[in-house]
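Retro notes (design track)

What went well: tokenization of the new backbones is finally stable.
What didn't: we kept losing track of which sequence belonged to which structure.
Fix going forward: every design gets posted as structure first, then sequence, in one message. First example under the new rule, 82 residues:
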């Protein structure tokens, strides 16, 4: 289980394309000071009704994210937020 009191947890508000706003608790959002990318679940992409793109479409089919815990997560989709 993810600890919402873990370091770098923040509250977040996301404005969707239909102008509605979704507020997320600290349980769902974590910052990363060294990255220009934020990793979110495909379930959150669907919940926020964001458009996703296959990473193979933009020639990043083998993109991986190396976590602080030294695990490697393979990424398959991307979305853009303003």
């Amino acid at each position: 289980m993810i600890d919402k009191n873990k370091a770098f947890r923040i509250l977040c508000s996301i404005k969707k394309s239909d102008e509605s706003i979704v507020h997320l608790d600290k349980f769902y959002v974590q910052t990363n000071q060294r990255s220009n990318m934020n990793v979110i679940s495909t379930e959150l992409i669907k919940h926020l009704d964001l458009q996703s793109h296959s990473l193979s479409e933009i020639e990043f089919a083998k993109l991986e994210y190396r976590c602080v815990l030294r695990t490697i997560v393979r990424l398959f989709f991307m979305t853009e937020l303003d």
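Added context from the reviewer: The chain has one domain: 12-78.
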